[in-house]
Amino acid sequence: MNGQCMCGAVKFRAEIGDKFAACFCEMCQRWASGMFNGVGTTAFEVTDGEEYLTVFKSSDWANRAFCNKCGSNIYYHMPEHGTPSVALGTLENTDELRNAIRFFVDKRPKGLRLAGEAKELTEAECMAMFGDDE
Ligand SMILES: [Zn+2]
Ligand SMILES: [Zn+2]
After folding, report:
1. One digit per residue, pLDDT tens: the chain, 134 residues?
2. 71, 73, 88, 100: which has the fewest C-beta neighbours closer than 10 Å?
3. Protein residues placing their CB within 5 Å of the ion ligand 1
4. How far is the CA of 107 from the centre of ligand 2 (A)?
5. Nearest bound ligand to CA 123?
């Protein structure tokens, strides 16, 4: 699956599954206007515009990458847990992707709801699952 940022400077190719995760933690809210939707990958490669990709270390365990030309979020990455989760909206086709899990649902902005059933984890449940990770 191919993906790119809004301006097209950064392009990538990724092997993805059929699911995405929504995260409502405070960092994701600030980063991605209320929630971040990440699609897990098993392979990821920037194919164009590596110089436009800024990788920001957002915590001790994770990096967040964005296009430094247009500001689009590209991925969230926990290096100890394999390849990045790419931003849902960067992908060329999202028709087959379903929301399987929601993190930090107790932090969710009141006006923001996702349709359909998915596994929902509160902050406490996320912490139990990831340790101190987000
Ligand atoms: Zn861009
Ligand atoms: Zn988050």
Report:
1. 999 999 999 999 999 999 999 999 999 999 999 999 999 999 999 999 999 999 999 999 999 999 999 999 999 999 999 999 999 999 999 999 999 999 999 999 999 999 899 999 999 999 998 775 54
2. 71
3. 5, 7, 9, 67, 69-70
4. 10
5. 2
How far, in Å, from the CA of 28 to the mean position of ligand 2? 4
Residue 74 host element (H or E): strand 73-77
Token pair of 53 as six digits = 């990709």
Please tell me the distance from the alpha carbon of residue 134 to that of residue 1, in angstroms, as a whole number. 26
Give the CA distances from residue 72 to residues 39, 88, 123, in Å, rounded to whole numbers and listed in that order. 15, 11, 26
Query: What fold characterizes domain 2-130?
Result: 2.170.150
**51 Cα to the center of ligand 2, angstroms:** 25
Indicate yes or no: pTM above 0.90: yes
